[in-house]
Amino acid sequence: MIITPPLRATRTYVQRLVAEPERVFPLLCPVREADWIEDWDPLAVFTNSGVAEQDCVFITAGQPNNAVWYITRLEPEKGFVEMLKITPDVTACKLTIQLRAAPEGSEAEVTYSHTSLGPRGDAFVASFTEEYYREFMREWEEQINHYLRHGRMLRKAN
Questions:
Q1: pTM for this one?
Q2: What values do phi and psi take at 8, rounded to 5?
Q3: Residue 113 near residue 8, CB atoms below 8 Å
Q4: Quick one: pLDDT band at residue 121, thresholds 50, 70, 90?
Q5: Mind listing the pLDDT tens digit for each residue in 36-86?
Q6: pLDDT digits (tens, 9 = 90+) for 101-118
Q7: Which string of DSSP letters, residue by residue, matches 17-51?
Q8: C-alpha to C-alpha distance for 112 and 44, rounded to whole angstroms
Q9: Which of 11, 34, 79, 131 is the Cys-Cys partner for 21 at CB 3.0 to 4.6 Å?
Q10: Distance from CA of residue 145 to its chain's centroid?
């Protein structure tokens, strides 16, 4: 048995979204994200309802390994979702999103906490910088806001 202190990186960003939480929350779903994130295509989604729900599991393609996601808490009335993402031999990640009403729509406080599971994870955690995360979150914010404003996905320029 190996017992060791975790190598972990936790980052939080608050997105400013142009719609109220009730409109945003349903889009935080492995199925509905395909409406607004280009190239989002989970390999499988295990759900009774066809969309995000408590205990929904989904798999996304990745390198060096596919990731398994598990929705551990889904509280639409509170605007809260929590997921675990396990990428074998790389990281275990907890993602939380808390939506709040704001004067211009809503705010989404998005926190990713990645814990390394070995050498590949060590490299990932080292690269998960504040600058990297801020850029990732701004891209996501731009994509979802475009969808909320126009009802269609923002396409990348070729």
A1: 0.95
A2: -140, 145
A3: yes
A4: very high
A5: 999 999 999 999 999 999 999 999 999 889 999 999 999 999 999 999 999
A6: 999 999 999 999 999 999
A7: ESS-HHHHGGGSSTTGGGGTSTT---SEEE-SSSS
A8: 22
A9: 79
A10: 15
* Tokens coding 45: 């989604």
H/E stretch holding 88: none
Domain at 8-150: CATH code:
3.30.530.20
Amino acid at 46: F
What the block records as the tokens of 73 is: 């808490």
- Specify whether the CB–CB gap between 46 and 59 falls below 8 A: no
The count of other CB atoms within 10 Å of the CB of residue 116 is 21
* E strand or H helix at 152: none
Closest listed residue to residue 121, CA positions, set 88, 95, 94:
88
Contact status, residue 72 vs residue 97, Cβ threshold 8 Å:
no
Q: Mean pLDDT across the chain, nearest whole number?
A: 96
Task: Compute the distance between CA of residue 79 and CA of residue 100 in angstroms, rounded to an integer.
Answer: 7
**pLDDT-wise least confident of 23-27, 47-51, 61-65, 147-151:** 61-65
Contact 153, 146 (CB under 8 A): yes
Q: What are 116's two structure tokens?
A: 């390394």
The DSSP line for 49-107 is SSS--TT-EEEE--SSS-EEEEEEEEEGGGTEEEEEEEETTTEEEEEEEEEEEETTEEE
